[in-house]
From TrEMBL, chains A, B:
This is formate--tetrahydrofolate ligase. Pathway: One-carbon metabolism; tetrahydrofolate interconversion. GO terms for cellular component: cytosol. GO terms for biological process: carboxylic acid biosynthetic process; tetrahydrofolate interconversion. It comes from Callorhinchus milii. Gene3D superfamilies: Domain 2, N(10)-formyltetrahydrofolate synthetase, Formyltetrahydrofolate synthetase, domain 3, Leucine Dehydrogenase, chain A, domain 1, P-loop containing nucleotide triphosphate hydrolases. GO terms for molecular function: ATP binding; formate-tetrahydrofolate ligase activity; methenyltetrahydrofolate cyclohydrolase activity; methylenetetrahydrofolate dehydrogenase (NADP+) activity. Pfam families: FTHFS. In the N-terminal section; belongs to the tetrahydrofolate dehydrogenase/cyclohydrolase family. Its EC number is 6.3.4.3.
Length: 742, 742
């Protein structure tokens, strides 16, 4: 017999597509078969026998490579049929089994997650693990999770933008469960929130068969080439391909950079033009006569409306109205809008601009921030759709005029262009974990001067896609006192979404540091306090864990403590943390081994999360938006950080007064505080008490919609170290593979 | 009867795929049919009759929308069956006919090119024409032009990157004909080289049935939001969708910005680190001991080799060798590498950086250029593959050390990271014209300090794809004296490709200006010299045309003059130009009407190009690379510009001496001269003579591979006018459509 057959089997909640290719020869047995389980997350393979002549083998494989109905190939051949030619004929896209001369002897597995062998030696790099797994084509993943063909825009083979129309289509569907991953106060070594996030969805999706989605932030390129390296998770809990995740992705940060810098250029150019032209000349240029017709653009009509000038014919404005219309009268000393680059460029922290003679002496001091610190990034993360984004972009306050009134992006006439530059960035990017479960990568606002959480839109879309029984896992930056507090008070307020569970990530070594262990530095060998059992340090450090559990309880959330296990951690240490955590009110506490074992290493955590999500929980916000700004700050300082009180500098107090006068008093608060301590002093580990939190200055992101008090000095532009990561990064021009990203 | 049928008909050189869906009801006649001619370029539609019940109509349309085998729908219904519901059920992707309530009465056309109705009024904007045409899915276009599925990476529905592996697959195939579009000395109004380029391929592909490809530059976002507006062609000769062409495209310029600025950050950070650390501290940081192992990275081994230190064990270097290795000893006053943004930000033309106290007083003057002026853009345009690009990136000279030796990107350890950032940008982006013919958009180097031509790789790939009888049309920036001269002497030298024909674009109004007509300003009404017949001005202005024809003849190329016709041009004016052009040695001279009529308006030009391409022509370069730098400059000045001689400033002379000493004497020359005159004085129109060309300074782009003499001051950062384009640009949040781009 010879032919192709496609059948569909409906079994319980799953639907299988089966593609069988079969034909018969005289010499050898030969198999081609592939089962795809359509619930997203896992892929099952089954065997089936087909007969074929070895001479036809390569030709038949080549044909199958081209057949879009065949999703993958599994070869099961007698030894005599194995040859380099046969092996090479299978394209990577169709090669479900990872056929190489090394692993030809491997058995076919019942579950793809079993492909992942724990690393043999410490020399295994994340990029090698990432590369060893061939991702599914993104269209296949999109179909698995229930997206329509017209709802995605592919960006190469491994990434796709998902259109916002999905939310309209699924608006009547119930949301899934919503899980936040947060951490204890971080140390320089990192606690692994990203790997836990990825490991958890791998366990839920690929091992427990529950629809699950991870929503993570897009990393800045600055750290990728600077100190920190990539941010795709790590080990066997990664977003793949990690190089695409860590580099340009689908260009969202570049779009933000372009929009941010267009607005910045518009500010200085406008000041120059106003200073060098009469009202009449400005008016003639701003509202020109084209082919005999003179009219206001829609954005100019909007400005007239704000100026309470109810006219639409440019010839009817009085000289006073013309002057008000053409002069934004920006006070350069009040400009808060900075230029950005997505590069760690410390020499741009403080600069002087406008020194060319063409700028006629309009020199001023300015700075560049890292792109992810742009308010436009915070807007992208908080918006719930195009109309809302356009409004927020127009509302951005870039400076005050000389009367102390806010000047906005809309006043500058540039808000429409900003929206146009951001029109694709607003769509979340779909990628996948190492075990083939779906991930949204979208937005990555700075976690100190902004709110440090991925986008509202990605969470909303994922919650619809997973369905009522499914799970969406998202991550908050820094420790729970910062990222989680902002998640609830800012992001949940913007989204209207209510989470079910908080997962609090800790490591034994970080707890030891909070318990009084010596300082640690990335790259340097750890001292014996960290590599040998030390129950005293662990127990003392659990004070920080306890405090963070209490913070989560302030918001009414059940907490599961996830201990991200390292090989030097002892069983006694882990047991101790679990015991203290539960004693402190945690719903459960479990150890996780996702780095070495992928989703299999996080099944226990996934089960605990599933149980906790079925408990009843009610989100309560920490403060009422109607409270005075100072009271809102005091509430966070006392209830979350454990401060005795706050103290505002005169500058901070006068800014608070200004914002209230400008009508911005009812916005939520986004604290800009060090992440390395619950207090404002990075060296104070554990649970500092009795301190007075100093508020040095207060700023406002009106487009994003929050007031941000500055506690101490916040660097918004990282630097490059003496030996940046880029020394090891290279591109092999033959294989097109990247080396040295980690 | 009821059913689906797919058949294939082979007819002459073309292959048709026919998809017919048919069934029968009792009330109405109903048609579904679509013919696709597989030669790229045009699409033919034919009618066929099917019967159907009107109640089933919408459901059937919805089904057909989802069927990937149905490429498009044409409805032919009795009036009674027309309803909003029926009209709305056809998705834009399948809507071949552009069904709206306005044009329901239109006849079905035999050729899609006839869809294009000349604009009724002058108020028709390019973006409206662009939007009125639904582009083919990019996968469909890719298949039509012979790309394999694995050779493209889609970026949304309308763009795809094409992999370089194509060149390897087709390396034995013959190249097609290669046509360069250049222009007379430009005026502020533009002569329409881009529209001629697009119109010409539309005529060749969609009207003459010849395989054809346009290769064009990616525009900078600066002008899009500043003064000039978009650059996708115009009217009925455009690359579509024009908003995607003009905005982020596939992110290449953003990648260049990221790479450029990473290198800039590395330079200043390195100077700071060297100045504040001992040799030993630097060495320990640059070559750290990790897990007990100390070793050089490959990029460091390359530097040791350049230093002639033949050692690979870090512990064996002498203190002198260590010092040489760790100290690049950059002389800050010699830094030529500037930061870039893709924004018209005049306040960054001259700045002071490093003013934050964290930079310890290492303050220096610097500048930002527009991103397309980056040397990395020139490298992208000139490279012939990954290995070559990596080498060029490493060779970039950013400064000299205090001994006067060049310091390169490889010395800074960053060249591998630059290659990684550029790994996707190196793949050309496939788009389409308004008439469905293929276009490569790739690279867009500044036309004054760089060479102003699209990429070598795109041209090479297109020449293979069109086949021996096909045509590739590419465009050179500015007038022929600049863009064409650099095309031959720089781009063709790098590519090894030999063009067949030069198309020289002129407009009647530009010739009038060269003939002594008054100045023109964009946006202002034209004076009567330009709107009424004036044969004297035309005849006088043809001197410039004659001179540019002669320049093309210097390179051994046949020239066809293309007159881009405006409605105020008279027949006598056009005839006069044609006559003078032919008299001056042009192979032919024809008028073009592509703006109003698309490819149909350029058929005559296409036929002339086809004839000329069959003539024998031999490319000769203007100068031998082995000539001294000054002689090469003199040759261009005298033979191309018509200068009496050149005069080097002392600074220019000393730079020439330095570059010769550094071993860069054999590079080609890339003149940085005003494009508004053949001379260095923009106000001198026509054919200036007797002038001495002043060479103010000489610079070098060693990675790109050219020396660039500066004739006068070149602005590398445009500014924003009082009323930038962005005032009119907006995004409709309901329809997601952009308004105001042009």
């Amino acid at each position: 017999t010879e032919g192709t057959e496609t059948m569909q089997i409906n079994h319980a909640q799953f639907c299988y597509n089966i593609n069988v290719f079969f034909w018969q020869g005289s010499d050898f047995f030969f198999i081609f078969l592939f089962f795809r389980k359509k619930a997203h997350g896992s892929v099952f393979l089954k065997r089936c026998f087909v007969f074929c002549l070895v001479e036809q083998l390569v030709d038949e494989i080549l044909k199958l490579n081209e057949d879009p109905k065949i999703h993958g190939l599994v070869l099961d051949l007698p030894i005599g049929a194995l040859s380099g030619r046969v092996i090479n004929s299978v394209t990577p896209e169709k090669d479900v089994d990872g056929i190489t001369d090394v692993n030809l002897g491997r058995l076919i597995r019942g579950d793809l997650s079993e492909c992942f062998v724990p690393p043999a030696a410490s020399a295994v790099f994340d990029i090698e693990i990432s590369r060893a797994q061939t991702p599914k084509a993104i269209e296949v993943l999109a179909k698995e999770i229930g997206l329509l063909a017209g709802e995605i825009e592919s960006f190469g083979r491994n990434k796709a933008k998902v259109k916002l129309s999905l939310l309209e289509r699924l608006k009547e569907h119930p949301d899934g469960k919503y899980v936040l991953v947060a951490g204890i106060t971080p140390t320089p070594l990192g606690e692994g929130k990203s790997t836990v996030t990825v490991g958890l969805v791998q366990a839920l999706g690929a091992h427990l068969g529950i629809n699950s989605f991870a929503c993570v932030r897009q990393p800045s390129q600055g750290p990728t080439f600077g100190v920190k390296g990539g941010a795709a998770g790590g080990g066997y809990a990664q977003v793949i391909p990690m190089e695409e995740f860590n580099l340009h992705l689908t260009g969202d940060i570049h779009a933000i950079t372009a929009a941010n810098n267009l607005l910045a250029a518009a500010i200085d150019a406008r000041i120059l033009h106003e200073a060098t032209q009469s009202d009449k000349a400005l008016y003639n240029r701003l509202v020109p006569t084209i082919n005999g017709v003179r009219q206001f653009s829609p954005i100019q009509l909007a400005r007239l409306k704000r100026l309470r000038v109810d006219k639409s014919d440019p010839s009817t404005l009085t000289p006073g109205e013309v002057s008000n219309f053409v002069r934004l009268d920006i006070d350069p000393s009040t400009i808060t809008w900075q230029r950005v680059v997505d590069t760690n460029d410390r020499f741009l922290r403080k600069i002087t601009i406008g020194q060319s003679s063409t700028e006629k002496g309009f020199i001023r001091e300015a700075q560049f921030d890292i792109a992810v610190a742009s308010e436009i990034m915070a807007i992208l993360a908080l918006t719930d759709g195009l109309a809302d984004m356009n409004k927020r972009l127009g509302n951005i306050v870039v400076a005050n005029n000389r009367k102390g009134q806010p000047v906005t992006a809309e006043d500058l006439g540039v808000s429409g262009a900003l929206a146009v530059l951001m029109k694709d960035a607003i769509k979340p990017t779909l990628m996948q974990t190492l075990e083939g479960t779906p991930v949204f990568v979208h937005a990555g606002p700075f976690a100190n001067i902004a709110h440090g959480n991925s986008s509202v839109l990605a969470d909303k879309m994922a919650l619809k896609l997973v369905g009522e029984q499914g799970f969406v896992v998202t991550e908050a930056g820094f420790g729970a006192d910062i990222g989680m507090e902002k998640f609830f008070n800012i992001k949940c307020r913007a989204s209207g979404l209510y989470p079910n569970v908080v997962v609090l990530v800790a490591t034994i070594r970080a707890l030891k540091m909070h318990g009084g262990g010596p300082n640690v530095t990335a790259g340097k060998p750890l001292t014996k306090e960290y590599t040998e059992e030390n129950l005293k340090l662990v127990a003392d450090g659990c004070s920080n864990l306890q405090k963070q559990i209490q913070i989560a309880h302030l918001f009414g959330m059940p907490v599961i403590v996830a201990i991200n296990v390292f090989k030097s951690d002892t069983e006694a240490e882990i047991d101790l943390v679990c015991q203290i955590a539960k004693h402190s009110g945690a719903y459960d506490a479990v150890s996780c081994n996702h780095w070495a074992a992928g989703g299999r290493g996080t099944v226990q955590l996934a089960e605990a999360v599933e149980r906790a999500a079925n408990e009843k929980s009610t989100l309560s916000f920490l403060y009422d938006l109607k409270l005075p700004i100072v009271e809102k700050i005091r509430t966070i300082a006392q209830k979350v950080y454990g401060a005795k009180d706050i103290e505002l500098s005169p500058e901070a107090q006068s800014k608070v007064d200004l914002y209230v006068k400008q009508g911005f008093g009812d916005l939520p608060i986004c604290m800009a505080k060090t992440h390395l301590s619950l207090s404002h002093q990075p060296e104070r580990k554990g649970v500092p008490t009795g301190f007075i939190l100093p508020i040095r200055d207060v700023r406002a992101s009106i487009g994003a919609g929050f007031i941000y008090p500055l506690v101490g000095t916040m660097s918004t532009m990282p630097g490059l170290p003496t030996r940046p990561c880029f020394y090891d990064i290279d591109l092999d021009s033959d294989t097109e593979q990247i080396t040295g990203l980690f």
